[in-house]
Amino acid sequence: MVVVQNSRKETMPKLPNLSGYAPHLTTGSVLDILLVSFFIYQFLLLVRGTRAVPMLTGVGTLAIAFYIAHLANLRTLDWLVGTILPYSIFALIVIFQTEIRQALARLGRNLTLSRGSQNGTADAYDDIVMAATTFSQDQTGALVVIEREIGLRTYIESGVALDAHLSYDLLATLFRPSAPLHDGAVILQKDRIAAAACFLPLSMNPLLSTQLGTRHRAGIGITEETDAVSVIVSEETGQISIAVTGQVERDITPERLRQRLAELMMHAAPQAQPYPAAGSVDAFRLPGEERAPRSPERPGDQS
Predict the structure, then answer these.
(1) What's the rounded Cα separation, in Å, for the pair 32 and 37?
(2) How many CB atoms lie within 10 A of CB 231?
(3) Which among 115, 207, 221, 250 is least buried, having the fewest CB atoms inside 10 angstroms?
(4) pLDDT digits (tens, 9 = 90+) for 253-264
């Protein structure tokens, strides 16, 4: 009986020691996982809603197909993939150059502490709002691009250099339909008009409304490439829109435009003042002058 019991004990299966398979988490491992998760999350935010999503889907499908071919021992296909793989990295850089440029620009903005380029522009946005109000009432098409941290020299050189002080009168003159520089965009650097009649990249976002024309797509396109802010006035409807980071806010009031510009230029928005109608005497009244009595109707309202 003793022999039988011993044989049974020897034949009992032994449980494997799982302690050696448990991952050993250290502070460096946790930090590594968090950083990788952060970069993946930022990458997904970057490509969401862009043309990079279907491209990445196609690249992933090809990668899976090539991996299956490798497992199936398809030698010719495996050799072909191994030969062209080093060059595919350069092809991906060319295909995703826009997305890579946006990622690097965003990283540079996050690391930049200086906001000097925004201060001068924020002090002069009243002229932009007053001009946009006049254009809206007259249904005059206009596109004003405000440079922030990322330089717009490439687009400035595509237009007519001005380097003039920003003012309502100059904006109204530039976008007058009979003016030779009314086509294209006006680019602002701080409180100066750098150039007029500038060419901008058109947005290729398929999610944009089909009602948006070339002027709106150009205004949105420059904000996709840089951190600039675009103020757009529709020639057909007179609606005022503002675009930033590829997003557009349409049909906004002058007060809303004033508030958004103050927020984007990192200044507290002053209390909004009613904007005078185009052609009224108040439109050219200096600060501190007495204002003539007016009707209770808020100036600047459209019928």
Answers:
(1) 9
(2) 27
(3) 207
(4) 999 999 998 888
Average pLDDT by consecutive 10-residue portion of the chain (303 residues)? 50 55 74 89 72 74 80 81 77 76 69 48 73 93 92 90 92 92 90 92 86 91 92 93 92 91 66 41 36 35 35
Q: Give the three-state DSSP class for 162.
A: strand
User: How do the domains of the chain map onto residue ranges?
Assistant: 24-109, 116-279
**Residue at 286: amino acid letter:** L
pLDDT tens-digit map of 164-179? 999 999 999 999 988 8
Q: Which residue has the tokens 């003793």?
A: 2
Q: What are phi and psi of 280, to 5 degrees?
A: -80, 160
CA angle 289-290-291, nearest 5°?
115
pTM above 0.90, yes or no: no
Alpha carbons 223 and 230: distance in angstroms, whole number: 7
Between CA 249 and CA 39 the distance in angstroms is: 29
3-state secondary structure 168-235: HHHHHHHCCCCCCCCCCEEEEECCEEEEEEECCCCCCCCCCCCCCCHHHHHHHHHHHHCCCEEEEECC
Query: Pick from 114, 116, 115, 122: which is nearest to 267 by CA?
Result: 122
Q: What are the backbone angles phi and psi of residue 164, rounded to the nearest 5°?
A: -115, 155
Closest CA to 200 of 231, 154, 233: 154
